[in-house]
Amino acid sequence: MKIRLNRTGIIWIFLILGISLLVNAQEDPILMEVGDKKIPLSEFTYIYEKNHGDNADYSRQSVEEYLQLFVNFKLKVKKAKDLRYDTIPELIEELAGYRKQLAGSYLMEKELSERLIREMYERRQQDVRISHILFNVRRNAPESEWAQAMSKANKAMERLESGEAFEKVAKEMSEDENTSGQGGDLGYITAWLPSGFYYLENAAYTLAPGEISKPVRTRLGVHIIQIKDKRPAYGKIEVAHLLVRENPSDPDASLEKIRRIHHLSLNGADFFELAKTLSDDRTTSPNGGRLNPFGINTFDNTFENAAFALQNDGDISSPVKTKAGWHLIKRLSKPEESFEEFRKRMKPQLPTLERYNNIKDILIEEIKNETGFYANYHLLDSFSLTLDDQFFTYRWEPGNTSSEVLISFDEDQKFKLSDFVEFARKNARMRMKYNREKPPGEALALIFDEYSRQLIMDYEEKNLENKYADFRSLMREYEEGILLFEISKNIVWDKASTDTAGLRKYFNRNRENYFYTPEATLSIIKFAGSPDANIQEIIEFLEKNSTEKADAKFNKKQTAFEFSKEEINAEDPRIQNMAWKQGALSPLVLNENVVYKLEKIHPNKYKSLEESRGYVMANYQQELEEQWVKELKDEYPVRIYKEIIDKIIKS
User: Fold this and answer.
1) What 3-state DSSP class applies to 509?
2) Taking each helix axis from N to C terminus, what angle separates 377-384 and 440-462, rounded to the nearest 10 degrees?
3) The whole model's pTM is what?
4) Fewer CB within 10 Å, N- or C-terminus of the chain?
């Protein structure tokens, strides 16, 4: 039975089918022409592959079958556009609503989520050695303290720019007591750095070896970093270890012991058993010395370097000396994660990460730079001088404000001071949340920052079609889905439901197709005793004779079987493996010692139009649609370039 869907359902069906219009202008030949409309090959291959999935084998049969469906779809959309359905205000408004829903999520997905996932994955492929100069700032310190730290950093930058060695400036100026003596050397770091250090991580992974960053704020203070080296990331490794603690009174004995154990491990002794019985690390010895997978900067550098130097699973290191004592290290595994695996694992976690908001800030700054963003801060400052504490209340009314341009970007994007002031007036809650925390001028600056960010994100959303081909395709899918729904509704679905005379004519022409479930008389023949040759003889007789004749023949001296009759329909589960014909006999059902026989097939009982209306209407819709497609093909000649099809056929 044909199901009628609402417009949203139809549109989502087309999204699932993937009717996407991806166009590669350079290598995208024209596959077909529908009237005067040229359709590129990419439109067809995209929908074909998306709908067939792993079964997209490009066999001639599957391609040609799907091509016909694609042609019919394009014919209907062509007709809708020629009838100017795309100018109907309600449909334009509906499409705009879909776009509004999609644009925000698409922007977050494409420009933020995908970008962040790619960035996180690529950074995990590299370790970076850095040195830094740090100027400490207390937690929750006022801006004045940050300004002092930034002033110190600027003085350090002046010295570095004048040619002084980074190590010398770090020793003399850095407030990191742990590293200043070593010229600020932090060793190798690996992504991702903890919360509060995203911008330092950015500098580390975007600068080249030898380069020095501008001052960077973190939760510790203001840093200047220099990139010392970059190497392929060590990643993570899983090992087991065995520890022999050094005996201060006899260090040679400890070394000799670890050497003996090493010799045993290389000559077939079970490493895990050795660790259980001989390791001095009581935390890991019960587990055979196994450690959780770890990356760099987790343990002693010497231990880590020896572990990561092991080339193969199962390799065992030579004795390794750390502050804890002497170790043997056995490599168990070195997990590698593909980008797709990483994406699947990380995507649900993104909104919880601090860097998710950080990268949005970076995106906004990039768009500002791309579009030539300009803000007249002098005009904003002048307006802020007119504010008092009334600004933090619902009752605040700004009065007449200047129509001077406050913000401009991308040539034609201009916003007046009065536009911003109206934004601030309407957002009373935003104003009120700063009450008693900030003076009016500072609060206004924060609201202005939110306003300008909103303008930039709105601008970016409006330009998604220009920036992303797949978003253009997505919006075209929605547009064509809306048009297809509306024209199909008017020409096929509504007509089928309102054309009473046409529906009855269709029913009268095809009434033999609408009947109740067929019925029959069924004999249930149950044999006495266990199956034997006599039962097989009876069954063979029943194949050509009635049950009554079998009863007369085989039940004379003793009862060989009993039988009864029932009136059933074709859906009876007992006959599902039998042919629906008079005289049909089932195989012997061994566990019941029964056979079934269709004694008589009864004539069909036909339904009235009212009794079968749902099925009749669905079939009438199908007929109307087929007639419509035929008319469309007469109206719009379809030309398919066979040579293009032949090029994509694989079997």
Assistant:
1) helix
2) 140
3) 0.56
4) N
